[in-house]
Design goal:
By secondary structure, this protein is of the alpha/beta class. 38% of the residues lie in helices and 21% in strands.
């Protein structure tokens, strides 16, 4: 069915939501093509898209269709699936409350017990709630750090882990069987919907606090915290205060504003997200600014150093916290001999070097914390090792696997403890990071986000990936040692007569190049936004050398990318 036929089917539905009908009537041909040519697809973070009318947009019909497919999938997983139930939460975005409630009604009509949070809650708490109630699955309505025009839909398995591709494919197959998504029944068994809140909060917070390693450190420094209008405001400041930290929430961003009107961006990866918080920090003399994204699974920080506030990347924060955990647990005698650290193939390799020093094993997964959550589940089920830490470059980490998704509340507690530890030694976190660099080398990472929206953007991304997949590229200043084509599951070793071996990862449209001196770069289309991401990692003997290498590598790679039309 072409886009015009699909659009006409929407127009012909007499019960169409009034706001969507109004939008649909105002669309021109190009807008119809963008909204109806494709169907919204599951990516690394589930469904995520612009709110509006169309099969390629987030709206009530797409949510109901996805939930019906998910529910039918769950019913096939266990005979008591409906009795076990599903936990559902949401963030602060436009229509999040409605999407969460409608998801609950679809599942209740299918006979599922539903545990629906009474108000917005962080993604990690949803993951926790799935395990706490022994549910068969979970749903989180969120678009994470995307702009205000977006919303999204994440689905979780019975262990609180986002569905990995093999399971997600089965859900997609169920969704694709649904032809008429305008008349999905949501009217029955509403008594099966149970609202939850405070009791789960208390259990989750109590388990998160168990990660604290040195409870008696002095906490004589101020913090500024912002949830960027999102779910972190529910209890992040209170958790910090309850263990003795002097935290000042940024009032103008402590509101559930779906328009994010008090902040320039809702993404803590962007420096402008910190402008207002840093201004407050300067006024009160705060040493650290903490910012969580709207669904509070990611943490970004800015650290006061010599009168300036220095922003850390997700890689840097992870390395700093992981080094502290290893150092402290070794001193306390609690570092397991069979411990594992998990990371992704686009993340810094510095934590790998740290893990090797402390005798921990390392496993590398694809981008998407569901793959790390899957590893944590495997550890628990098989007993083959002990989970110690997991992280990905996009500002997410997990200390305790009581949650099976990245958790900014855990990250905040451990980051602040790390700061308190070094403060007693007369060091701030910049000093601490520099000490790590002095020991291991100056690891530096970067990323180029190439925005390519719409159908033509999607085609351009495909052309770029095909070029790197089929062409033997060369770099002037770097030696290419090997290449991973994860889509084809092939590793090519250029130092060994181009020997090819199989990659033991799920297939994904990702290409990684391994360079001399432990350097690398990766090309990967985003699974949640219309962009191509190019990741880089270099190592230098000094900060200046690492920065020069990074700029040179970016220049060479982008020089190739820009020639592809």
């Amino acid at each position: 069915m072409g886009y015009l036929e699909k659009a006409q089917a929407w127009k012909n539905f007499k019960g169409l939501d009034a706001n969507l009908k109004k939008e649909l009537d105002q669309m021109d041909d190009n807008q119809l093509k963008e909204a109806f040519t494709d169907d919204l697809e599951f990516g690394t973070g589930g469904l995520r898209g612009i709110l509006g009318a169309g099969t390629n947009r987030m709206n009530i019909y797409i949510v109901e269709k996805a939930t019906l497919g998910f529910g039918r999938y769950l019913l096939k997983q266990a005979p008591d699936a409906a009795k076990k139930g599903v936990a559902i939460s949401h963030d602060n975005r436009h229509q999040s409350v409605e999407f969460a409630r409608k998801s609950a009604e679809v599942l209740a009509t299918l006979g599922f017990k539903v545990y629906l949070f009474e108000a917005l809650r962080p993604t990690p708490e949803l993951s926790y709630a799935v395990r706490y109630f022994k549910c068969i699955g979970g749903i989180m309505i969120t678009a994470s750090h995307n702009p205000k025009e977006y919303n999204g839909y994440k689905i979780y398995d019975e262990t609180g882990c986002q569905l990995v591709p093999a399971a997600a494919d089965k859900v997609i197959a169920e969704i694709e069987k649904i032809d008429d998504y305008f008349t999905i029944d949501t009217s029955k068994n509403h008594d099966l919907i149970q609202y939850i809140g405070k009791d789960v909060d208390e259990k989750y917070i109590a388990d998160v606090k168990k990660i604290i390693l040195r409870p008696n450190l002095k906490k004589d420094f101020k913090l500024v915290y912002t949830p960027l209008h999102g779910t972190g405001q529910v209890f992040a400041p209170q958790v910090l205060q309850s263990v003795g930290y002097d935290v000042v929430p940024l009032a103008c961003q402590m509101t559930c504003d779906p328009d994010f009107s008090g902040v320039k961006t809702s993404n803590p990866e962007n420096k402008e997200a910190y402008d207002e918080a840093i201004e407050l920090a300067k006024k009160i003399g705060a040493k650290i600014v903490l910012a969580t994204d709207p669904d509070a699974d990611r943490l970004g920080i800015a650290v006061e150093h010599n009168g300036e506030y220095v922003l850390f990347t997700g890689n840097q924060t992870a390395a700093l916290v992981f080094d502290y955990i290893c150092k402290t647990r070794k001193e306390l005698g609690t570092l397991p001999k069979d411990g594992y650290m998990f990371t992704t193939n686009v993340s810094s390799t510095l934590p790998i070097a740290i893990a090797e020093k402390y005798g921990l094993k390392v496993e590398i997964t694809l981008t998407g914390f569901k793959f790390i959550g899957e590893k944590a589940r495997e550890m628990e089920e098989t007993g083959r090792g002990t989970y110690v830490f997991g992280f990905e470059e996009s500002y997410g980490c997990l200390v305790s696997d009581c949650v099976r998704d990245k958790d900014s509340i855990q990250a905040i507690l451990m980051l602040c403890e790390t700061a308190a530890y070094y403060r007693e030694k007369g060091m701030d976190l910049v000093d601490a990071l520099n000490a790590i660099y002095e020991e291991y080398g100056y690891y530096l990472e970067g990323i180029t986000n190439i925005g390519l929206a719409g159908l033509e953007g999607k085609a351009k991304i495909a052309r770029i990936m095909d070029y790197f997949r089929t062409t033997d590229i060369a770099l002037k200043g770097f030696k290419i040692l090997a290449k991973d084509d994860v889509k084809l599951s092939v590793h090519t070793d250029y130092t060994n007569d181009d020997k090819k071996t199989k990659i033991l990862l799920p297939t994904s449209n990702v290409i990684k190049y391994y360079l001399n001196d432990n350097m690398w770069f990766v090309l990967r289309p985003s699974g949640t936004e219309p962009k191509l991401k190019v990741y880089y990692g270099v190592v230098g003997k000094s900060d200046a050398e690492a920065k020069a290498k990074l700029e040179a590598l970016k220049g060479e790679v982008m020089g190739i990318v820009n020639l592809i039309k």
